[in-house]
Amino acid sequence: MQWLIKFIATGFYIGEKVPAPGTVASVLAAAFFYIFLPVEPAFYWTMLVLLTFIGVITAGKTESLKGKIDPPEIVIDEIVGFFIAMAFLPKKLEYILIGLVIFRFLYILKVYPINKLQVVAGGLGIMLDDIYAGIVTNLILRIIIHL
Description:
mainly alpha
């Protein structure tokens, strides 16, 4: 069962195989979103809730297995964060690319209060900063689209 937890938390082992795993996972999440994900609200809400719940559990357990706080190999948080960034927005390539840049910018620079959210322990702490970055990205994209 540990392999499955690690498999999910590391984004199908992407987090263990590439440099800049968070950025690579975000780019792959963007491609997956564009190619495969329907934007129908009931499906999307269900997917976000389930992935967030699974992410909290698997990230926390993988963190314990690795014996490190928020190891970079865990990328389920970036995947969920990006899906939140794009939630209920038009599925257009330009919005996805802008969203990807904004999401990574906010996360990498740890814009306040993202930097404060990492003090929460375990899987929830791993997920919270990316969830917040996804929400802020979504709001910024809504403003850009509206203008």
